Amino acid sequence: MPPDRDPARAPSLLRALVARLSLVVVLGLAASYLVLYFEFRDGLWGLEGQSIAVQVQNLRASIVAETDPPRLDLPPSLQELYAQPNPLNGYQILAADGTVLDSGGFSAPYLPVPVARGGDRVVMQRERDAVSGNSIMAATLELDGIHGPYWVRVVRNLDDAESLVAQLLLGALEELYPPVTLLLIAVIGVVIVTVRSSLRPLRAVSHQASRLSLSRLDERLHTHHLPRELVPLVQAVNASLDRLEADYRVQREFTANAAHELRTPLATLRARLESRFSAQELGDIALEIEQLARLVEQLLCLARLESQEHFQCATFDAYAVALEVARELVPVALESGHYVTAATPEASVPAYGNATLTRLVFRNLIENAIQYTPAGTSITLSAGSATVIIADDGPGIDAQTAALLFERFRRGPNAAGVGAGLGLAIARGVMERQGGRLSLDANAARGARFVMEFPEPT
Questions:
Q1: DSSP letter for each residue of 49-105
Q2: Do 409 and 419 touch, CB atoms closer than 8 A?
Q3: Which is higher by pLDDT, 288 or 73?
């Protein structure tokens, strides 16, 4: 089975969706901008063409055709137009073979004459001058003179920075940049908000799934407000949870029934053996039966904890219960060379839960301290704010063992004597069923320090 991928290195669906949608938006805006740009440019070139077409008609009205070659008698306004420094526009009178007979303003002497005859129609040209490299637009009109046809042409330099097209295009670009930038930011913001809101139901289901445990197997993932594409996945997970819950119930009921059925035969066997044989004759057999009986009781306790059985809860003094259990175990502790002391004998820890089950927790922790620490070790009970602490000054618990301490059927590498490794698992289960918590203090300076946190009475 391949190892799980580190969630921090897994690809982000949110980041991928935002990046892809943002890319689509940017490309869409860029394409729209280019389309508008070229449409606008073509429209402006149309205006340029209309402008020089009007000029060539004005020149036609100013031609003196009776002279050879024809000449222009320009009105003052046109004279000023073509006499400006660095003019954009120019005019030419061309012979039929393209020879320049007269010109003024912007010069384009190498621009060829139109291939097709225009008759009385203005012929438009847009070409690049072979010598200067300028992009030139021309409007040419064919006329008849006393010695045959000739051409009147108006030319405009489209590469000049002061060209009407250049001015309008540059102005339009400068005006479009800010709104396009703001529109892009706004659209990306909308994309981020939309994607995050769309993924919110998925995050809610993920949070709900993270809370599932053996004690909450009856819960199922909801499908409210989920996208249609994710509903089959959630339904499949819920179906799997249904099967797991059913299998777990069967296993738990089997364990409880088996343990319950074993109690009576074990009690009968122990009674018969004790009635027929002395303790010396029984020897290790009595210990084995005692260990088996203890294991059966622990399995029954686990089955009750994992069932939906409701325990009777009430307000009690958790620290007083702990002191009572410690007094009962003092003879056992002294027999093995241990000392049990109360650091805060007058303290009180009001708690809400089941006092009988809580006794099992205290008994298990004190017995473990007696069993797993060397003679001469002191076991201390103390109380804090809603907590009871059982600590010893023994060798402590190494980190590797502490990580698995509360798992079932786990015993330390140096464990000896009776026990199946269920005591601490049961103790934690009891605390959790009451809404409390049992933990091992990893910061203890010496020995093992178990902390029980109890829910306060309401």
A1: HHHHHHHHHHHHHTEETTSSS-EE---HHHHHHHHSSS-SEEEEEEETTS-EEEEEE
A2: no
A3: 73
Note the pLDDT of residue 234. Answer: 85
Q: Which residues contact 263 (CB under 8 A, 6 or more apart)?
A: 293, 296, 297, 300
Where b means 16+ CB within 10 Å and e means fewer, 234-248 reads beeeeeebeeeeeee
Lowest mean pLDDT among 58-62, 145-149, 330-334: 145-149
Compute and round to an integer the Cα radius of gyration of the chain.
49
Q: Do the Cβ atoms of 431 and 350 come closer than 8 Å?
A: no
62-102, pLDDT tens digit by residue?
887 777 778 788 888 777 777 777 677 788 888 888 788 88
Q: What is the mean pLDDT of the chain?
A: 76
What's the pTM value of the predicted model, to 2 decimals?
0.44
Alpha carbon distance 424, 428 (integer Å) = 6
Q: Which ranges of 277-317 does DSSP label H, i.e. alpha helix?
A: 279-282, 284-306
The enclosing H or E element of 20 equals helix 13-61
312-453 CATH, one of 3.30.565.10, 3.40.1400.10, 3.40.640.10, 1.20.910.10: 3.30.565.10
pLDDT, residue 5, reads 47
Please state, for a pLDDT cut of 90, what percent of the chain lies above it. 5
Mean pLDDT of the region 409-427: 62
What are the CA-CA distances from residue 305 to residues 168, 176, 252 (Å)?
Answer: 83, 71, 10
CATH for 231-305 is: 1.10.287
Exposed, middle or buried by CB within 10 Å (0-12, 13-18, 19+), for 284? exposed
What's the pLDDT band for 338 if we cut at 50, 70, 90? Answer: very high
> With contact defined as beta carbons under 8 Å apart, do 52 and 89 qualify?
yes
Specify the residue for token string 């289901």: 205
217 within 8 A of 245, measured Cβ to Cβ: yes
Distance CA 243, CA 250 (A): 11
**CATH 1.10.287: which residues of the chain?**
231-305
For range 201-218, the mean pLDDT: 78
Query: Could you give the C-alpha distances from 162 to 99, 117, 124, 170, 325, in angstroms and in order?
Result: 29, 32, 21, 10, 101
Select from 426, 116, 122 the least CA-distant residue to 297: 426
